[in-house]
Amino acid sequence: MYIVQIASECAPVIKAGGLGDVVYGLSREIDTRDHTVEVVLPKYDCMRYDHVWGMHKAYENLYVPWNGGAVHCSVDCGWVHGQLCFFIEPHSAESFFNRGKYYGEWDDQIRFAFFSKAALEFLLKSGKRPDVIHCHDWQTGLVPVMLFEIYKYHGMTTQRVCYTIHNFKHQGVWSADVLSQVGLNRESYYSSPDRLGDNNNAGSINFMKGGIVYANYVNTVSPHHAWEARFSDIGCGLQPTLEVHQDKFGGILNGLSYDVWNPETDSQLPANYGIADFENKERNKKALRERLLLEANDKPIVAFIGRLDQQKGVHQVHHGLYYSLANDAQFVLLGSASEPGLNDWFWHEKTHLNENPDCHLEIGYNEELAHLIYAAADIMIVPSNYEPCGLTQIISLKYGTVPVVRGVGGLVNTIFDVNYDTNKQPAERNGFVFFENDSFALESALGRALRLYHQKPEDFAILAKRGMDCDYSWKHPGDQYVGVYEHIRHK
């Protein structure tokens, strides 16, 4: 098969979150199965050009119909760690992708409506006719709409669309006048409740809803999160739309790229290790303590890696920090806050705890340091309010760092409580899980983890090594996505 992924991110060249990891990891997995996979991306001024090899012009003069006229674009081509990618660069006064950042602009919906239009125009004009177009999140929600309503009348009649939703919170709700800019000129038709009309804002359209309505298959990134999206407020108002389209909606768990995240081969670690030489993990703990000026002692290291925002359960992170320090453990945090109030809060905590020899808060993000923390920590807390899939807990397992997670989203599909998960055999249980979103529940799970470490260190090591043996690679998700592609291309 020939698959084209259209997305706003692809790690490591463009990465703001887990979306980039998924686009890259899935593309590489499908490519290894002798299918042809190409990725179409915006050409941001701030992307990591050092991760692109052989960049060259693939299409010189692409004129994208836009707002009654046309925008001149060029398309560059290069390989991102073996994955062929195309980068669309508009030459216009709007400077759609020359903003110094990927997201967070007042006109994001306009920027990504243009990108979706340009991606389809590139496929049309360059003669590319993939079997499946796989697009992601609200940024490309208009792709299946325009494919069905415009481009099928210009020769793209057999293309099918798989649409993956990574986060229901951000849906691309915008004024309906953007439709005419991309050539969808019947505003009342597209704004109707059974098409793009937003379920909660009369007169607005919803890019993500358009993707759900028009795509041939829709999925989110774990089976449990798919259930949450349909039957709880995690769907953020799209529950009725998912109910109508339930026959083409499901959940496929994300995978992890073990060529990037593997303690046996990780070049960013002072000491590599696996199950057979698990004791080498201690050398990474020693290196982390030296780097962060933590006291060398026998205490376990509890860690948090992730964004400091409400989704990630930031108040529970704060509570876990002080609970760890009060229960004979060290605590390390690596994360950045997008909200000024949360950023100020954690900078205050950093200043307050600066002289504590058992604590270090790193406000920001450093990829090299993240690798070292995964390898050095004993316990990783993931107390999310909601978590579509989550990679932190999967990476932790691979690095022999025991996860303590809240039972939501993909965390339910990957972490099974060592004491209480009766649906799994003891040999399949790999962490600690709590369900209620309060400090007592967190203390119960984290407390059990700390007690196991202190009182039964041999059993704790067995649990850590059991996690390393779990397979959350892209192999099984790859099977599922190929199955989806085969299914929709023959519909």
Structural commentary:
The chain has 491 residues and is of the alpha/beta class. The radius of gyration is 23 Å and the shape is globular. The protein folds into 2 domains: 2-255 and 475-489, 3-Layer(aba) Sandwich (Rossmann fold), CATH 3.40.50; 278-468, Glycogen Phosphorylase B (Rossmann fold), CATH 3.40.50. The protein has a 9-stranded mixed beta sheet with strand order 3-4-5-2-1-6-7-10-11, with helices on both faces. It has a 6-stranded parallel beta sheet with strand order 14-13-12-15-16-17, sandwiched between helices. Helices cover 36% and strands 20% of the residues. The longest helix is centred in the first third of the chain and has 19 residues, at 108-126. The chain is built from 17 helices and 17 strands. Helix 2 (108-126) crosses helix 3 (142-149).
- Strand content range: 15-25%
Largest sheet: 9 strands, mixed
Return the CATH topology of the largest domain: Rossmann fold
Shape: globular
- Residue windows where pLDDT falls under 50 for at least 5 positions: none
Average pLDDT over all residues: 96
What would you call the structural class? alpha/beta
Q: How big is the Rg?
A: 23 Å
Give the end-to-end Cα distance, rounded to a whole number of Å.
15 Å
How many helices does DSSP assign? Answer: 17
| Total domain units | 2
